[in-house]
Amino acid sequence: MSAFLFLCSIIIGFVIYSLINSLRRPKNFPPGPEFLPWMGNTLQFRKEARAVGGQHILFEKWAKRYNTNLLGLKLGQEYVVVALGYPLVREVHLQEVFEGRPDNFFLRLRTMGTRKGITCTDGKLWYEHRNFAMKQMRHVGYGRTQMEQHIEREADALINHLAQTQSEPVWPVTCLAQSVLNVLWCLIAGQRITSDEDTTLVRLLELMNRRSKVFDICGGLLAQFPLLRFIAPDRTGYNLIRQLNTELHNFFMDTIAEHKQRLQLKQKDQQEDSDLIFAYLNEMKSEDAASTFNETQLVMTILDFFIAGSQTTSNTINLALMVLAMRADVQTKLHAEVAANLRCASADAFPHLSRRESFHYMDAFIMEVQRFFHITPITGPRRALWQTTLGGYDIPKNATILISLRSVHLDEKHWQEPHEFRPERFIDAEGKCFKDEYFMPFGMGRRRCLGDALARACIFSFLVKIVQHFHLVLPDDENPSMVLQPGITLTPKPYKVKFMNRN
Questions:
Q1: Can you say which residues are annotated as belonging to the binding site?
Q2: Can you give the pTM of this predicted structure?
């Protein structure tokens, strides 16, 4: 009996200790709501976020409630710190201590159960493979003439596709996403993904779109309570992301196998390193057994680029088209600028990013779309690599850091009437476009977005060509919403627009 009582005492003591520890707030931790036993702020966070229209909005409301620009939360067992406002956001972006990535179930699920690739890794592996990937992407044309040639081909195909709609109302985001990913895939694999007969890309994009809505900025319930995948695999999105992982893995492996076969048979119509996959395969052959260059790492690197290029760029263009259809005044100014610039250029000139300095209003318009809609309102997540301080508070080692770009892009102390869409805010007294230091849609520092060069080039070139060829008109019964749908990124609600030929 005494042994039984002793065992009960041990269990009760452990439960009490666990309860007290789950309620404990670390010393000098940033202010925020009180923790609930074992759950932290998870239930309150999700409930209030739904009520206000998104987690990014709730962060700002809590920052005002607790009079702080550095929020301290606990989601499940994970300490989470949210940085708001330009000074703190800039510091998190640029400090080495915040270059880590969390190691949790959701991020491992994103990379097919591994901790590989570039986006979700840190330390030596991240540094080595990011540098290698970016070097090779530049070698095959990333941010250079070759990439612009791919963009030109896809832009022409997009214009032809839109012309065939014969001014019927269409939802443009699907064809936009295909065009952007085809540019990226030419750099990664040396070829386009899709043709009119192939539905692979459409299916993958549909899965990616569903993924972005099922999960949220903090990863959803799977991030805090991974055991829920056994209880509610559909509701938590577990089955969806498993399906997406399987299809992406099969697609990537088929492409890698084709590249391997070409290397083995020496059937080379180009240099072996003419795309990213060839470069990785060659690096794998030249490295020793302890090398981190392996097939799994290659698959996850392709996945990182694929996810980075699949939605944010096409959604930015999609939002720009929505604004053009709603704002005839803005569309008129843009068309006048485009027409004037293209008259001055040679007949076959394409509006590549290198000519962007001649399109001041277009440049300002694109930046205002990115600032106003902030489709990635919270970036990260980062991980504190060691115990440190931020904004006068102590940040525990391995705490997750979230970065509120929305709080910078809509800062009322810096931007005049930030909730008004006004491209002129990026035009100086001489009529030239300038970049404001508070404008940072791709982040800053060594963790800056991998796809920024591709995104900037695609957005600019596609929009110039669309404005050149079409007048955008909303159908009589269409009234697009400027309020975006929350998810991993913010997305516009479906709308339709008519592409009226200008010729």
A1: 449
A2: 0.90
